[in-house]
Amino acid sequence: MPYMSVFVKVVELGSFSAAAEQLGLTASAVSRQMANLESALSVKLLERTTRKLRLTEVGAEVFARCQDMVEAARAVQEIAQRFVSSPQGLVKLSVPKAFGKRIISPLVPEFLRLYPQVDVQLILNDQPNDLISDDLDLLIRITDTPPLGLAARPLLDVYHVLCASEHYLAQAGTPLHPEDLSHHSCIYLGETPGDNRWQLRHAHSGEKITVSVKGRMVSNHSEVRLEAVLAHLGVGCLPFFTAAEALANQQIVEVLSDWRYETTYHGKAWILYPPNRYLPPKCRALIDYLASKLSQATAP
User: Fold this and answer.
1) Angle at 75 between CA 70 and CA 76, to 5 degrees
2) Between these two residues, 93 and 36, which has the higher pLDDT value?
3) Which of 19, 103, 119, 270 has the fewest Cβ atoms within 10 angstroms?
4) pTM for this structure?
């Protein structure tokens, strides 16, 4: 069984060294275990080159069976965990940076008080993560549709609002229609060439308009865009959860409130986890806690 689980990890991660790092072994030990497995089965499972690994035909069939066995073993362990008196252990959760800082991080202290035997590692990362290769328990992704192959639970609707300071609007005028934005200084995402093309939909009529914007400040982080809006540099697109406090304090105001920005980073925040029937209690506790807390949040 140990050799088979090592084989599964090597194939999932695509290299001996990556598998060794996750398993706490040396690359040479992983190589020996793979050689022992091939010797025991009298078949070659992997074709090795200097650049990558490739399953042989028989290796692909053996991998599928070994994967089933490893999943079954995990399920047995998770059944046992269900009967632990209370959730315990470390939960590794990856979250987009701005959402993690503004929404998730403030909720963690209360969770830790409620579950004194559970620890949380909060990983703020805007790059796409993978539960297996990145050794995560849970991850949050903002998207219209959660990815296939993972269990998903919706946490919160994510909207953008267009905002500016009163000072900027007094100097430049208030846009009354999306087309007016082309004459304003706009603060946009700037990760891809198309990020300066804002797609807006009227909240009532459903009319859609795309407008090309320009400005002197561009940033791929919503906190930086908020700071630029507060510094009177123009009209910024901001997730509502980033802008909410400044709006409530009347430091900035919403513009074109009848229009919804629909270009990027909108939809729902989903918490994703492996589609196992027996989710560890520590993960279930955090999922339920976040879902309960965020169901009370209000959208703009």
Assistant:
1) 100
2) 93
3) 119
4) 0.66
